[in-house]
Amino acid sequence: MKFVSGLLVALSAASANAFTVNAPRTASPKTALSVTAAEWDVASIGRSVRIEGSSREHWEFPDPNQEIVQVGVDSNGRPVETLIELWIGPDWTPMKVKAYTEDGMMRPVQSLIGTRNKAAAIDINNTGPGDFPLNAAAAYAGPGMVQQRADLLTNNQGRYIEGGAVHSVNFDATVDQVQVLLYTDTRQLNAQVELLNGPNNFKQKYEVFTNNGLLNSLYVIFNTPGAGNVVRVTNLAPLEFPCKAFIASV
Length: 250
What we know:
By secondary structure, this protein is mainly beta. Helix content is 12%, strand content 44%.
């Protein structure tokens, strides 16, 4: 579980008072391992399935030697409402992610989900109405994508968010994509991540619950076209369940 080991190192090295000035951030320099938008195209991820409203589909991941699964969901421009679940065994669902986007073409759902190095399945449920179909795909993530997520921890200073607290970061128009990672020290993770453009005008939203925020951290990528984009993280858990957030441009 290489990524979990990286999280443990970050936990021990970071200060509980880590703070980032909330000024508009600019794009970070691109690296050789930066994942391009083309790699998040649903058709290029793997087996792509059209899921009608109020329908579902699942993907099997039997290899315990691989941990990270790439999940992509888009549409032809219509809104997307979906529930993504991690299934391990016949009746255990350790992680659930509710996702909403106002425009599934401009701002698709893009996430990496850990399987805890177990045989697992990813279930994608279109919770929208019948006339709002979506396209979804899931596959084991490539090395560059896994490394990009790990680099987010080592290259950025995280921010502790107590239960019930809110933290937001502004991005200027030079930023095309923003990556967000939330995790805990093995306690439950119950949080919401929103992309806003304008006062309380959210364009995209994720809500995660997992019983172990270290083994199943939330990692998502937002497309951020235009200016005035803000990423807002809300810890929905009680005060005694803090989480840590890493937010940076891709």
